[in-house]
Design goal:
Layout lengths: L2 H29 L20 H11 L1 H17 L4 H12 L7 H8 L3 H19 L3
């Protein structure tokens, strides 16, 4: 995996704890769009879907940003489900615990692995995630 892809995958992993909130926010943005100007001056109906519920469902289904967020969240969760407790803790300490005060040596000490083994686990997680997201 090239360095840019690795950084991108790591960023997705770092953002995982906020993904549910971002998904819900995006759904709200789509359900309740802000329309500042009514351009329908003559009162004729548009060619869109007239059923508001159906329109909302179609908007949610067709939104690419929402699809990508949900796809990424599901991919991360499926990779996390394969990890043992120490590997999960390693990922948690490296990517989600703020502020980041632990070095790789500190993380290795806490999970009971060598520093090199921690890198191997991290690389395997990133490779699995890249595969699930279609970057490999």
């Amino acid at each position: 995996m090239d360095a840019r892809t690795k950084r991108f995958i790591e960023k997705q992993l770092e953002d995982y704890p906020s993904m549910i909130e971002r998904i819900n926010k995006r759904k709200l943005e789509l359900k309740y769009p802000i329309s500042l100007i009514d351009e329908n001056i003559d009162g004729s109906s548009g060619g869109g879907i007239s059923n508001p519920t159906e329109r909302i469902v179609m908007t949610l289904v067709e939104d690419i940003k929402l699809q990508k967020l949900e796809e990424t969240k599901e991919a991360i969760e499926s990779v996390l489900d394969t990890l043992d407790i120490n590997s999960y803790t390693l990922i948690e300490l490296k990517y989600w615990v703020k502020p980041k005060v632990r070095t790789w040596d500190g993380i290795a000490l806490q999970v009971g692995y060598s520093r090199r083994h921690c890198f191997t686990i991290r690389d395997n997680v990133l490779d699995m995630l890249a595969e699930k997201l279609g970057y490999n």
